Model the fold of this input.
Amino acid sequence: MLAEQDAFEAERQARLVKAVYVYEAPLRLWHWVNALAITVLAITGYFIGQPLPSVPGEASANFLMGYIRFAHFAAAYIFAVGFLGRIYWALVGNHHARQIFLVPIWSAKWWGEVLYELRWYLFLVSEPKKYVGHNPLAQLMMFLFFTIGAVYMICTGFALYGEGLGEGSWASSMFGWVITAVGGNSLQVHSFHRLGMWVTVSFVIVHVYAAIREDIMSRQSLISTMVSGWRMFKD
Amino acid sequence: MTETFYDVLRRQGITRRSFLKFCSLTATSLGLGSAAAPQIAHALETRPRTPVLWLHGLECTCCSESFIRSAHPLAKDVVLSMLSLDYDDTLMAAAGHQAEAIIEEVKRKYKGNYILAVEGNPPLNEDGMYCIHGGRPFIEVLKETAADAKAIISWGSCASWGCVQAAKPNPTRATPVHKVIFDKPIIKVPGCPPIAEVMTGVVTYMLTFDRIPELDRQGRPKMFYGQRIHDKCYRRPHFDAGQFVEEWDDENARKGYCLYKVGCKGPTTYNACSTVRWNNGVSFPIQSGHGCIGCSEDGFWDKGSFYDRVTDIHQFGIEANADKIGATAAGVVGASVAAHAAVTALARARSTPGLDNKPQSGDK
Done:
């Protein structure tokens, strides 16, 4: 039962909310595990290239760089296995789960909606369209910067990891070709992998901003959708 | 002209009696029985030692300088008893036409059975005129000599990758051996120079077992180039602990901490320096306090500073490293997002009176 004051307010201001179940539980779990893994990867990755100030004491009593690298590799495994699981879920999950893998680039209508969204972000139209899943622009960005980006980071990352495991290891056998492909000197792969980290950081900034902004501006739920799975349309 | 192993043993004062004893003992220890002893003796008496022709292209002779300092095996043993180094213009006594005649002779007598060792590389610009060998462009001599060889050894980073003469802008178009010879097995022994023991080790392996050592993806012998300097570096515990030389001549440098932060290329360099070391195992660059410059890696001269960990990359037409490019990009994105948020807030404040008072119907 609502209190009298609340009942009065609800009477005056409530509006009909439509809700659609968009993101299934495995996908939501993946999203947050993945977000955590990317955070750990970016921070530890930064400090692998630019290590923290030296620690005092005996070498045998310290393992700072070792722990940082361990965290990086552990998070990388979680990220990679999670990505494989995500691909599996794209196959067996609902059609929203396929959005970031399949982009309808042959559809003129879809490109038209990408342009519409772009105009919305440039303040040229006053109302955004509402979408149950990703809007077309978001879908394109997710594909370019997350899906392609993840494949790129997994390939370059495990190529470098394979150097430590040695030739003949699974990582070297599967991803060692990356080093040969960029000319054979893995220093290049280190630089390119690091650039990938910065691209990911930029993506995360835009991703978080767009989610918060759309949550407020487009009058549909965004952030809570990735928690509960339900998309609310507020009017 | 070329001696057999038996000839060499006799020349070094070993009697036939001792030689036959050795053959019997070898047959027994290999579990082959007494019937195999005459076969072994026959093989050693008749099989000629593999001739090696050693050509010099565009190079600095540091590979030869390294080679003659080999301690295990001694270079003199390699040259005088293990292999038949028939031609090497910097080491041989003959000169001029006499010397050049040897190449022809070996090519004819040992067609398909000699090893060609190449130090340096052929420059291709101006029809190869930047390197003249016996009055002809080196590229011609190289191709001719390679045509009848069993295998080719690319000595050093010059023959393997191109090295400094191939650094940007590579005015002479110095080109590594594997980019001009395609139909022969090529063993790359990179380094500037390669370690002496690695050089003699590769040659000894090929002559003893009569086969090419196992090579990695890039054509280097796995036994010497299978691991990075970093993997076997004696300063590795300081790396794992997070103890680095922060700047040259600081207290950490005196303590022998890891040189990673001052640009050591050990983590990206495949070579045997940290295990075999140099000058009869005395030391190697990291042991003497300087980071590895990655001299055995492809393009080490064009991959940014020797003293930076995150090195400059040139793919974007600017001199900046991944952190400068990336942090700038992230900064621009962050600033754009902030500006966009501000514009959004202003536009919204102007168009609607309050967040939750959006009219139910009407002036959309």
Remarks:
- Residues 37 and 180 of chain A are 28 Å apart (CA to CA).
- Chain A touches chain B through 54 residues (CB under 8 Å).
- Chain A has a mean pLDDT of 91.
- Residues 186-217 of chain A form the longest helix (32 residues).
